[in-house]
Amino acid sequence: MKRRNLMALVLAGVMAASVMGCASQSGAKNPSETQKEAAKEGASDESGAADSAAVPAGSWKPDHDITIRVPNAAGGTMDTITRILGQGIQQSTGTTVMINNLTGASGAIAANDLLAKDADPCELMTSGIALFTLAPLFNQDIKVSLDDFAIVSGMVSEDFVLCVNPEKSGIHNWEELKAYGEKERILFGSNTPGGTTHMLGTALFGEAGLNAEAVTSDGTNKDMLALTSGDVVCAIGNASACQQFIEEGTAVPIVVFSADAYEGFEGFTVPSVVDLGYDIQFKSCNFLMAKKGADQAALDQIHDMIQAYTETEECKKLAESAKYVPDIADGETVRAMIEDSAKMCQEIYEKYYH
């Protein structure tokens, strides 16, 4: 019964914004004391149930609550994913996992809060790749270094795609878009300067020698709606945000910003930007990290807990409800991705923005 109470809180997080133990930057009581007590009870009861993460016992035994900082508001995508995976850590350790939403400065506020603590496997943070790639380039007040952190585990990664709307523009593929751009200015939907899709569009059209102008918004959904209405010729977005429009037939993916073709959309094999002659590779990536100096064996154990939990039916159901596809890469793999992406972003920034 106690474990079911805990799961009810996590499920509520998938469906809304209220889930297991959570502290907020504003100090609002979220969740209630009753929710916190339920989380604590659930952490110590039935943690070895058949549907829990079957992780072999390791040497690390946390002696206090685990706190995961999330640089996004409660109820958002990364908050929900963090809570799902936090459920697995909680079950495996028998220790309460608390979520602390610390928003602002592209994650720098949460990162500095983590750095203010002693290096401790119980002090963690969910981060996005932009914190170490784009954010420091476009906001000089953000001074964070990847060297100050230990990457624990990947959580999710996603490709970006360039889409067109043939019904409005008559353009069906990259060659046709390129031919259009040699005669007319290309209006492309993207986020504002400093954002990923703005950078990718600027770099691609710049390298192709095409006259292009960004029509910016604060979200990919708005960019795709602009494409649907014909206000832009093309738009760039993460694959999951574009999928609905592709399924509806109002968008056609013509380029993916990765080394390999993308086959995640039914009926489409999306050409790689590299195959078209432009080495502009970038993936959205979110990961769990700790302060440098935290016990590496403990961090490795946390990664194993997360990986094992994603293979349980419990996690699969939660992930399906949240439309979440886990990508639980190890810390070294994630760090290499960040470093490669940071180098590319620096090059693009110096060539097209600086």
Automatic annotation (TrEMBL):
Q: Locations of Low complexity compositional bias?
A: 45-54
Q: Which residues form a coiled coil?
A: none
> Which portions of the sequence form the region Disordered?
24-66
Classification via Gene3D superfamilies: Bordetella uptake gene, domain 1, Periplasmic binding protein-like II
> Signal sequence: where?
1-23
Which keywords has UniProt assigned to this entry?
Answer: Receptor, Signal
Q: Which InterPro entries match?
A: BUG (IPR005064), Bug_dom1 (IPR042100)
Per its UniProt record, what PROSITE patterns does this chain match? PROKAR_LIPOPROTEIN
Bias kind Polar residues: ranges: 24-33
Sequence ranges of Basic and acidic residues compositional bias = 34-43
Keyword Cell division in record: no
Q: Which PANTHER family match?
A: BLR1237 PROTEIN (PTHR42928:SF5), TRICARBOXYLATE-BINDING PROTEIN (PTHR42928)
Question: What family does the database annotate?
Answer: Belongs to the UPF0065 (bug) family.
What is this protein's name? Tripartite tricarboxylate transporter family receptor
What is the originating organism of this protein?
Hungatella hathewayi
